[in-house]
Design a protein that fits this description.
This protein has 383 residues and is α+β, with helices and mostly antiparallel strands. Helix content is 25%, strand content 32%.
């Protein structure tokens, strides 16, 4: 640490600088109101311009040299700053006369311009979202340079957050994802937004305003519920929990042959069951070939007529629930997931058992909804 002596007492330059600028920074900061806003840690970036080369003012015998360039050609050399530790060592070695001479050659405060950049530490919003339409992906989906779908959950969340908090940027993350034509219903999917450098913030207003702005931006297609202020640990837990949650789905299925209510009861009684799934055909070009075991915890098949039925199922985390009937982006998929379409028709025998094998005829899926993302695995498996 660079230090100097005043009246026989050693002071660090950092402490001296803090004393000089603290009052001005406090005056420029908005008044604190703990009831209206949570604590807001900030960081400051101070840049000094206009000062002479202080290192050059040191005696030649003590003047440190910048580090040597390694692995660079002559044309690629650049000036590197002298490490602070070397400067500090040189200052410690000065005698009294050299200190006095150095002080007289350094710039006066009027010659130095200090620019201060203040930014607020990130603020986190934890919430759950419901997606009520079948044309909206979770995040922007671009295929061959063309945007697919109408908006995205991420887009609506970012628009709402910037309106509510007047922040520089927003990072969105959720616990898993659903396809663009799959509705997210029930209690919603856990998610969070990281708001960077908020300039407007009020705990009393942010919850209601954020939910209202999400609904407004999406024209009611996306809803934000259970909005709360969170810390980074809780935000990180949203991502970590994606592999531990149990999810409930409902889908409309078609059979190639007439099935009876007795057939439906037999299929429903087959759960719980372990499903062996090889890497999906569609993503074999980008995923390693492997067989992964996932679990179907509950099945309930209800026939609406001899060829169509509604299938409800609870699955363990990571099961690939639907292979979309539309073109889909491989980067948006998880090779470890089980797809109800794949579970329904068997993915050319790569998923076993499947609804088709349990029902004894070909089967396919027409529509899919996520009914719930359970926080309590034990509760969901016993329901």
């Amino acid at each position: 640490m660079i230090s100097t002596q005043v009246g026989g007492t050693t002071h660090s330059v950092k402490d001296a600088l803090r004393r000089v600028v603290a009052a001005d920074l406090d005056r420029l900061s908005p008044p604190s109101n703990p009831e209206a806003a949570p604590p807001a840690p900030c960081y400051f970036d101070l840049t000094f311009d206009g000062a002479p080369d202080d290192v050059a003012a040191l005696p030649a015998r003590l003047r440190p040299k910048p580090p040597k360039q390694k692995g660079r050609g002559k044309r690629q050399k650049r000036t590197e700053p002298v490490p602070a530790a070397r400067v500090a060592a040189a200052l410690e070695a000065l005698d009294a006369d050299e200190r006095a001479a150095l002080a007289s050659t350094l710039a006066t405060p009027s010659q130095i311009r200090v620019s201060v950049k203040c930014a607020r530490e990130p603020v986190y919003l934890a919430f759950r979202y419901r997606k009520l339409g079948r044309r909206t992906p979770q995040s922007s989906w671009v295929v061959d340079g063309r945007v697919k779908g109408i908006g995205s959950v991420e887009e609506y969340v970012c628009v709402a957050a910037k309106i509510v908090a007047d922040c520089d940027g927003v990072k969105f993350a959720a616990s898993g994802r659903e396809d663009w034509d799959v509705r997210m219903l029930g209690n919603g999917r856990p998610a969070y937004a990281e708001l960077q450098n908020c300039r407007r913030w009020s705990t009393q207003d942010v919850v209601g305003d954020f939910a209202r702005e999400v609904a407004k931006a999406s024209a009611g297609v996306v809803e934000a519920i259970q909005v709360e202020i969170a810390d980074k640990a809780k935000a990180d837990a949203v991502n970590a929990s994606a592999e531990t949650k149990v999810k409930t789905y409902a889908c409309v299925v078609w059979f190639s042959a007439d099935r009876s209510d007795e057939d439906a009861r037999r299929v429903s009684a087959s759960a719980p069951l372990a499903v062996q799934q090889k890497t999906p055909v569609r993503v074999m070009h980008s995923r390693s070939l492997a067989t992964r075991e996932k679990r179907v915890l509950r099945l309930k098949l209800t026939m609406t007529n001899p060829r169509f039925g509604v299938l409800e199922l609870d699955t363990s985390a990571g099961m690939y629930i639907k292979e979309c009937g539309y073109p889909c982006a491989p980067s948006r998929r998880r090779a470890s997931s089980l797809c109800p379409r794949r579970f329904v028709h068997g993915d050319l025998g790569r998923t076993e058992p499947s609804l088709a094998s349990l029902a004894g005829c070909d089967a396919d899926i027409l529509q899919l909804d996520v009914l719930d993302v359970h926080d309590d695995v034990a509760a969901s498996s016993s329901s």
